[in-house]
Amino acid sequence: MFQDFKLNGDRPVVIQVKEYIQRLIIKGALQADQKLPSTREMSGLLKVSRNTVIAAYESLEDDGFAYAIPGKGSYVAAMSGHSAAEGSSLDGSASLQIDWKARMNRYAISAVELDIMKQGIRGSKGIISFTSIAPDEHLFDLGDVRRAFMDRMAIEGQVLLNYGYAKGYKPLIEYLMRYMENKGVDLSGKDMLITSGFTEGFDIALSALRPESRSGAAICENPTHHTALKNLKLQGFQINGIPMERDGISTEKLEQVLKQGLTFDLAYLTPSYHNPTGIVMSPEKRSAVMKLMTQYGVPVIEDGFNEELRYSGAHIAPLIATAGQGNGVIYIGSFSKVLFPGLRVGWVLADRALIGHLESIKRARSIHTSTIDQSILYQYLLNGNFDKYVKKARTEYKRKYELTKACCEAYLPDAELTGDGGLHLFLTLPKDVNTRELLAACTEQGVIFTPGDRFFIQDGEGMNTLRLGFSRVADEHIEQGIRVIGEQAIKLINAK
Amino acid sequence: MFQDFKLNGDRPVVIQVKEYIQRLIIKGALQADQKLPSTREMSGLLKVSRNTVIAAYESLEDDGFAYAIPGKGSYVAAMSGHSAAEGSSLDGSASLQIDWKARMNRYAISAVELDIMKQGIRGSKGIISFTSIAPDEHLFDLGDVRRAFMDRMAIEGQVLLNYGYAKGYKPLIEYLMRYMENKGVDLSGKDMLITSGFTEGFDIALSALRPESRSGAAICENPTHHTALKNLKLQGFQINGIPMERDGISTEKLEQVLKQGLTFDLAYLTPSYHNPTGIVMSPEKRSAVMKLMTQYGVPVIEDGFNEELRYSGAHIAPLIATAGQGNGVIYIGSFSKVLFPGLRVGWVLADRALIGHLESIKRARSIHTSTIDQSILYQYLLNGNFDKYVKKARTEYKRKYELTKACCEAYLPDAELTGDGGLHLFLTLPKDVNTRELLAACTEQGVIFTPGDRFFIQDGEGMNTLRLGFSRVADEHIEQGIRVIGEQAIKLINAK
Fold this sequence. Notes:
- The structure is a homodimer.
- By secondary structure, the first copy, chain A, is an alpha/beta fold.
- Chain A folds into 3 domains: about 15-85, Orthogonal Bundle (Arc Repressor Mutant, subunit A); about 110-135 and about 390-495, Alpha-Beta Complex (Aspartate Aminotransferase, domain 1), CATH 3.90.1150.10; about 140-385, Type I PLP-dependent aspartate aminotransferase-like (Major domain) (Aspartate Aminotransferase, domain 2).
- The first copy, chain A, has helices at about 15-25, 40-45, 50-60, 100-105, 105-115, 115-120, 140-160, 170-180, 195-210, 225-235, 250-260, 285-295, 320, 350-365, 370-380, 385-410, 435-445, 475-495; strands at about 65-70, 75, 130, 190-195, 215-220, 235-245, 250, 265-270, 300-305, 330-335, 345-350, 415-420, 425-430, 445-450, 450, 465-470.
- In chain A, the strands form 4 sheets. Chain A has an 8-stranded mixed beta sheet, sandwiched between helices. The first copy, chain A, has a 4-stranded antiparallel beta sheet with strand order 12-13-16-15.
- In chain A, β6 (about 235-245) and β7 form a beta hairpin.
- In chain A, α1 packs across α3 (about 50-60), α7 crosses α15 and α9 (about 195-210) runs parallel beside α10 (about 225-235).
- Chain A starts with 12 loop residues before the first helix and ends with a helix.
- Residues about 85-95 of chain A have low confidence and may be disordered.
- Chains A and B meet through α1, α4, α5, α7 and α9 of A and α1, α4, α5, α7 and α9 of B.
């Protein structure tokens, strides 16, 4: 015994010694009330200092794996309830076996079925991947993030590490309220809830608004953000998709649908840099949409996605600003795409009474959002890093955006392009090009992208569309990748 | 105009100038195409440097709030869609008003009704409060936490700030798998999901196991953790409570309930330092409970709550270790009470197929848990800080535990005490003492605690019980506070 102990470099030696002995005890290799080798002996056996062994024995005693008899030495404690320590297993009857798959409800099964991360193709090494619309981590100003953390820890480290509030970290809420006010939002009667990113905020809002006696009914742009579609479906909503035009959702089609007299529980809209089409809804359409929603009394969930990533043109107010004192828009914002997705922080700005309910749901689900994440974000904003970073990110992404656009125009001349900013472009190819087939052909050539059909509401829609995320692709790969896509598209067209 | 600009100390001046002007534009005080004062002029008006104004104007242009005409100056951009900028409000029809309260479903309403944070008494300044069972932040080793963050950021800062995996941060998962193995758990066929604390893990598990065609049915200890009760209720479970005995749940009563032939979807159990009673389930009971669950095929959700805060006695294996190779126990762990509640990290260790489903639900709900939180925790563990901290915390809490116990024995001699460790004691007073009345009387004397009835399943149970959390109360206040509770209890008894 004790021959197989091996030190590895990355952890304190005393902990490695303790865990090694603990494991022997747990496995039953060391029996209850057996005397452990003296610290001097063990030190020789494991080739570690005697002080290390003394500390490891003490720690084992603290944790109840050993006990000391003064003047005699350390002994192994009886391991109660361990199946291994009590023979091959507890008597067979205690081996509780459950058929979990059979117990999964529709929600759990659908969550797997709709989980594109589990079905998607993974980019292997060396492949050129246009599937990501996450930011390029090489732009991250790590020094500023570190400083934000250290600054905040110095100010109130103890507060950050203890329980926070379900509603969110107060300084951050105040900051973001002012931030939204500076976008033209009338804050009267409104309040804010901090969530773990956009997704949690959206899911919480849906869970409160889902009707009980019937399926929910939602309106949204078609195509739209697939995570939003997934969550609407998981919460049982019927989805009525309205086609997109170059300046945003078709208000004509929207009115047609609203006129039919159906009850809609909500509309989910992404007016700026819409995912996947990248389209910015025009100011006129924003007014027209809000008029229709008011006329038919349909609440709006506004996705503030990428609003900060505009590369040119005048500032356009979000729908919640257009609504003035109206309380009917739930705005969900996040800096995930602009700043750091790893910081899971989003915010829901909405009517105060509604936020009160969402706050209680948030508390029931996860107590509160990481205070460290919230406080880093707050201090980073307060230190003035955000403006500086966004300026740098815009310059870099704008360049990539223009390069991607130029390459598409050169290599995919038949494709219709949309995308006014953000981190991706959306392509509509000629009707007879199936982008799933195109993807299969491109994958063989080492290039992948996101087929567009997954953003559409009905199966079989958008089969000739695709999304190109360019944020994490190097310039030369953008050109090379799009050339491959163009070549394969021509082959497909010629083969028909 | 420009007279009311005031600098405040904590933010970069250029951002303050930019936001000030932006606000004037948003509010319509500066009109579209109006020329802004020259940078020289504005510098004089606001009493800031000309370079600051130049930078602020540039930033306004970047954000689309202004535009420059070379050689002429900066002009206000047209604010599209802003209600304020277009007069008192957009035409009235666009002021979408929603009666949110009327639209809240049963889930949202219940979340508020069951939200004790919204109903509880708040400890005002100067009051002695025994309501918290959060750790004492004065024990936090902030230096070690800072070092863990800096170490990890240096190793892979870019990875930490970009998207992570729904399942969790891989190094942390590997660490915690080994940690659980060292508690005697057989890992074969098992997998782990990282969640935002215990609560999210529990809620996700319930949402997957909740049956569709009928109400769910759950067994749990009575009393038990009120957040767990809340989530079971919110997910529509009928709860069958089994009374507690000094060595844990009554196996006799448990068997009686199971024998009735009802279907139970799960049992929720806290075998160690049970909340609120503080009782540790004996090894014999652990085996007996697992035998019963196996016999009746009831899955177990084990709450690993405070398992690390044992002050004496031998190590006792968790139920998931007792189950050996059985896959029927879902173990949910967290270091929130032992380490830092602000780090929202918990883990679900369970059957691999089940974890696959829970992972997809986690992804649908919140993408993933804060990578910063996970990586700080990982590096803190790896650096060997955990053992050191737990040793210090145990010593401190054990002292407070013994003090609290001694004070209760002195001032509340008629109370039955339970609590073998952890951060609180549970008191059962004579039948005729109503602890809600007692709380009212004590509040007037500046002392508050948690009435015990909220931990019981049926209304009207446990009316003579209370929980004393001592972790954040100073020694002298423990003594003083319990003396007050004792005095008021005697008054109440004498008044009857």
